[in-house]
Hints:
This protein is of the alpha+beta class. It contains six helices and three strands, in the order βββαααααα. It has one domain. The radius of gyration is 17 Å and the shape is globular.
Amino acid sequence: MHGHGLRTRLCLGALGLGDSPAIHSLVLRRYRCRGCHAVMLACPRAVVGHLRYGLLAVVLALALWAAEGEPGHAVRRAVSPFRSAGYERFHGWRCLPRWAQRPALLGCRPRSPPTSPAREMALDTVRQLSTRALVSTGSLVLDACAAALRC
């Protein structure tokens, strides 16, 4: 393995609990395998592969939506740095069911059947994440976010 340059990647959402949602530009290091010529990207654990949003933003969104019962447009306002056109009031924030159906991206196992409602799957993921918090606060949202920050 040897260095193969730098790459800039955008990461959306807050990087810390209580921070305002923002657009973050991260400079990541690329590496190339000398044997098979595969190129790999080294990034912080807070960056979730194949998602624009950071780990804390995704966990916070799922926790607010599933555990607190917040509507999609309110969750988007709390997590996304972009202003909404208001369409979420009619159909919800479309990212939430997509993220709920892919718990493996957050390091969780899908325990709910694939035919379960998205909120149920999200709640299961949030519960799994909250068990990884070092200190339990009794709040699923805070515990899941603390576990995401610890990763």
